[in-house]
Predict the structure.
Amino acid sequence: MFEIANTPRDYAWGSLGALSALAGVSRPNSREAELWLGDHAAHSAVLVSDPSTTLREWIAQHPDRSGGRDLPFLVKLLAVAQPLSIQVHPTRVQAQVAFAAENAQGIPVDSADRNYRDDNHKPEIIIALTDGFSALSGFRPTEQIQAILSALSHALPEAAGDIDAVRAALVAGSASAVTWILGNPAPVSSLSNALTNSTVVLADSVAADALDVARLAATKYPGDPGIVVSLLLNHVVLAAGESLFVPAGCMHAYLHGLGVEVMASSDNVVRGGLTAKHVDVTELARIMDAEAFAPRVVPRSPAPGIDVFEPPIDDFAVTRVVVDGRDAALNIEGPAIAVVTSGSVDLVAQNAESATPTRAFFIEAGEFLAQIAGNGTVFIAHRPVR
């Protein structure tokens, strides 16, 4: 077992200093969006003992100690201060075909106009570290969307014509409505502005919440079609420790909060709105699943203080360990990545390491994380045990 580290990515939606604050360091002017802990080629972690060596390089040099291949999962700490883009991730087959196609077109892998940066799928789970982690995830039932649009049409008569156009597109299904919204910039921009500039207060709580989310999105991207798309998506708010699984094809956007995210090791994102980055409406419509709703994952608790999150995929599971002075006995086989999110703990495998928040460790293949002691919380990404 050895320590790994990385530098936070400074995406525009990231918080100012939240990840540093988690580590007990004050950097109030530092934009910190997400901390990658894995071996993905786009931003591999490095060995703390030798920062010139990436974890990806170490794994390539030591296949017998890493499972013989790239890690199947990627761990991130997320600090969301502003809405992320409305996006969808592909299935494995979709990614393989589209990655090869973009390669054949000669699009550089690091091009801003590229959708597929690798050939893997990207199912993911987010586990909230603080109360109030907010996300859009999966389509609302059609009747609920119609009720929201009806309430808005009555409250905003000046926008009723544009709202009715969305309602008409919705008759053919949520996917058709999204395609219409993203393909008609003029009326949608007018509708977006009407939604966000009004001071109307809606009596219906569901419609009022949807309008609040649209207004939140507009603070960063005024006039963006994603503001209208947000009305179609479920608004999910997680308490600390609750989780949300996002399967392939599920349209989603994280809005606000601090969390641990674990995903299949991929950087494939197809965006549809709420972003200044590359948007591909045609590809988004092709791979999105209008029926996909991201469910909350109820963890299995094999012992006090130990919760195992097991989404319905083969790439990873996540174990959360909370210790409060009593040792937690484990039997988690590597390859695995452990990251501390609170307190001060001791991790025991073939060697022992003391750790505080944001410090992370790679447990080698064939090695077992056997014990965690102290007071604090640790998340471990590992292969699922079926």
In short: Residues 23 and 287 are 38 Å apart (CA to CA). The longest helix spans residues 205-220.
